[in-house]
Design goal:
Helix content is 41%, strand content 20%. It has helices at 2-12, 18-28, 52-66, 75-85, 107-110, 164-174, 190-196, 199-204, 208-216, 218-238, 252-260, 286-291; strands at residues 35-38, 41-44, 93-97, 116-121, 133-135, 149-155, 175-186, 264-271, 277-284. With 292 residues, it is an alpha/beta fold. It is globular and about 65 Å long. α5 links the parallel β3 (93-97) and β4 (116-121). The protein contains 12 helices and 9 strands. The chain starts with a helix and ends with a helix. Strands 1-2-5-4-3-6-7-9-8 form a 9-stranded mixed beta sheet, sandwiched between helices. Bound molecules: S-adenosylmethionine. Residues 58, 71, 97-100, 106, 121-123, 138-140, 155-157, 160-162 line the site of S-adenosylmethionine (SAM). S-adenosylmethionine is lined by residues 58, 71, 97-100, 106, 121-123, 138-140, 155-157, 160-162.
Length: 292
C-alpha cells in the first residue's frame, strides 16, 4: 500500500527528477519491464497479448473518445460518482481501469476529490493528464503488486475488455482483501432500451421545435424503434457484433454472471431510471479471500 501512495505523491511533486519517478514505478511493478515517465503518464513497455480484432476495435474507438460530443451528458457520470461515494474513504487507493484519454480527472471522481486516484489505459495516446496513469497497460495484465488497491473502477470499459475472465482474476489479485470493484456498464436488454427511449427524450430532449416535431412523428419513430429492437434481439441471439468498438454486449443477467463467475460477491446494483446504464458494486467473497 505504502508504495502506491508514495507513487501517487511522487508523481504530484513537480520538483522530482524523472529518474526518481521511474525508480518508484519499477518498485511498484511486478517485473522488470521498461517504464518511461512523461508528466503523469507512466508508459508501460511491451505489447499486450491480445488479438488483432481487439486492437482494431481499439483503433476504431479513438476518434469517438476524442469527439466533442463524447460524454456530453454529465448526469450519468455524476450519478456514478454518487454510487462510488457510498463506502468511499478519503485515503482509498483507486484504480480506474480503461480511464480513457480525457486529460482531466473523470467526472465521476471530480466531486470526491480523491487523493490517491490513478488510471490504467491501453490507448497509448499521450495526453497531459492531471492524474497519474499506467499507459499502455491492460486489465488482463495489471502491472501492480498483489493486494494494493482499495477500489477498482470500470466506467463503461468492461465491455471493451477482450479476456474478461483473466481481467477479473487480475483485478482480484491487485485488490486488497476488503477491496471493491465498481462497474458502470451500458445494458443491451431490449426493455432497458425501451425505457430509455420513452417519453423523456421526447418531452425534454433538445430544442422546443425538435420536441414538437418528434411528438408529431411519434408513430413513425415508434415503428422504426420496434424494428431496431427486433433487429438487435436477432443479432444478439446470433452473437453478431452490434458495432465496431465493443467486445461484448451485456444484458443484466450476463454481466451479473460474468462477475459472479469470478467468486466476486455483488453487494449493490442499480439501473439508472430512464437509461440503459447499470451500476454494480462487488467485493471479494469470503471464499475468494481464503484462496488468496
Ligand atoms: C468507452 S471507453 C471509457 C472511458 C472512460 N472510462 C469514460 O468513462 O469515459 C472504454 C475504455 O476501455 C479501454 N479498454 C479497452 N480494452 C481494455 C483492456 N483490455 N483493459 C483495460 N482497458 C481497456 C479503452 O481503451 C477505453 O479507454
Amino acid at each position: 500500500m505504502a508504495k502506491i501512495v508514495n507513487l501517487v505523491k511522487l508523481l504530484k511533486l513537480k520538483d522530482l527528477g524523472e529518474s526518481d519517478k521511474s525508480d518508484e514505478c519499477k518498485r511498484l511493478a511486478n517485473n522488470s519491464a521498461d517504464y518511461q515517465v512523461h508528466g503523469n503518464n507512466i508508459i508501460i513497455g511491451g505489447e499486450a497479448d491480445l488479438s488483432l480484432e481487439w486492437q482494431e476495435r481499439q483503433d476504431a474507438s479513438i476518434e469517438r473518445y476524442e469527439a466533442a460530443s463524447y460524454n456530453q451528458n454529465e448526469a450519468i457520470p455524476r450519478l456514478f460518482g454518487c454510487f462510488i461515494a457510498i463506502g468511499h474513504q478519503d485515503e482509498d487507493i483507486i484504480l480506474d481501469i480503461g480511464c480513457g484519454v480525457e486529460p482531466r480527472v473523470p467526472l465521476y471522481m471530480r466531486d470526491l476529490d480523491p487523493k490517491n486516484f490513478f488510471g490504467l489505459e491501453p490507448l497509448k495516446k499521450l495526453v497531459a493528464r492531471d492524474f497519474p496513469c499506467l499507459v499502455g497497460a491492460v486489465a488482463e495484465e495489471i502491472p501492480l503488486k498483489d493486494a494494493t488497491v482499495d477500489s477498482l473502477l470500470l466506467a463503461t470499459s468492461m465491455d471493451h475488455i477482450e479476456k474478461i475472465d483473466i481481467a477479473l482474476k487480475e483485478m482480484l489479485r491487485v485488490l486488497k482483501p476488503d477491496g471493491r470493484i465498481l462497474v458502470w456498464t451500458g445494458l443491451y436488454d431490449v426493455e432497458f432500451l425501451a425505457h430509455a427511449k420513452s417519453f423523456y427524450p421526447i418531452v425534454f430532449g433538445g430544442s422546443l421545435a425538435r420536441r414538437v416535431v418528434r411528438s408529431l412523428l411519434l408513430p413513425l419513430e415508434f415503428t422504426l424503434f420496434l424494428c431496431r429492437l427486433a433487429e438487435r434481439k436477432r443479432r444478439m441471439a446470433l452473437g453478431i457484433a452490434l458495432d465496431d468498438v465493443h467486445f461484448r454486449y451485456y444484458s443484466r443477467q450476463r454481466i451479473t454472471a460474468d462477475i459472479e463467475a469470478c467468486s466476486l460477491k455483488i453487494t449493490r446494483t442499480i439501473v439508472v431510471p430512464g437509461s440503459t446504464s447499470m451500476f454494480i458494486e462487488a467485493q471479494k467473497s469470503s471464499e475468494q479471500y481464503k484462496q488468496n
